[in-house]
Amino acid sequence: MSSASQTQALLRLMAWLSPAFPVGGFAYSGGLERAVHDRLVSDALGLRDWLSTLLTHGSGWNDAVLLAAAHRAVGRPEEIVELSALGLALAGSAERHLETLSLGRAFVAAASAWPHPVFDRMPKDCPYPVAVGAISAAHGVGLEQALAAYSHALVSQGVSAGIRLGICGQQEGLKILQGLEALAESTAQQAAGSCLDDLGSASVQADIASLRHETQVSRLFRS
Q: Is 21:216 a contact under the CB 8 Å cutoff?
């Protein structure tokens, strides 16, 4: 790929995983709101630990494995359909299912502003990481770069949710982003060499928080 093409792919990746990209990620906390309510996360250090666990042992890791698989399968539509079904089946709660499906649909719709035949091959119900993986590959975005950006976006969204929930300030949030930068990079490197056998999580508290959030009366987020 030429340097100009690499720059174009980078610019698209930056746009697609920017907080301003219209996928509605601001409406979801992935169970963090319930964790704050239950005092499982009460400060910036707790938020950093929560996000690092998701990234390495929770939904963030599974998302990375699915993204990598979709990136490699971009030329095989039937595999993308199978990966989409698997990604939705892995959702541990109704809200997690809603989150990944809604973000995936919104991502496909918004990214279609950059025309490509891949959009004609995408299933209607496509979870977020599968959509990002397939569309990134179709536009020439490198796998490891897509994984790193996706992991960083997950951390960034978690920090934003933490600030809105009042458990940290903006400066503390920036320190969390800086502190987890290396972890996002190493997770991307590991996920780039993963296969579907590497799927699995051990973030039980996060899964329970996501389930308990479904019955929470007063809330800011949809998950």
A: no
The pair of three-digit structure tokens given for residue 203, joined into one six-digit string: 């973030």
Report d(CA 85, CA 127) in Å as an integer: 8
Question: What is the domain partition of the chain in residue ranges?
Answer: 24-213
Q: What is the pLDDT of residues 119-135, one digit of tens each?
A: 999 999 999 999 999 99
Residue pair 165/39 in contact (Cβ under 8 Å)? The answer is no
DSSP structure class, residue 197: G
The CA distance from 189 to 151, in Å, is 11
pLDDT, one tens digit per residue, over 41-69 is: 999 999 999 999 999 999 999 999 999 99
Residue 128 near residue 63 (C-beta atoms within 8 A):
yes
Whether the full predicted model's pTM is greater than 0.70, yes or no, is yes
> What letter would DSSP give residue 58?
S
Say which CATH topology domain 24-213 has. Answer: Urease accessory protein UreF (1.10.4190)
Residue 27 burial (C-beta neighbours within 10 Å; 0-12, 13-18, 19+): middle
Residues 73-117: tens digit of each pLDDT: 999 999 999 999 999 999 989 999 999 999 999 999 999 999 999
Say if CB 83 and CB 77 are below 8 A apart: no
d(CA 58, CA 187): 12
- Dihedral of the alpha carbons of 143, 100, 174, 43, in degrees to the nearest 10: -140
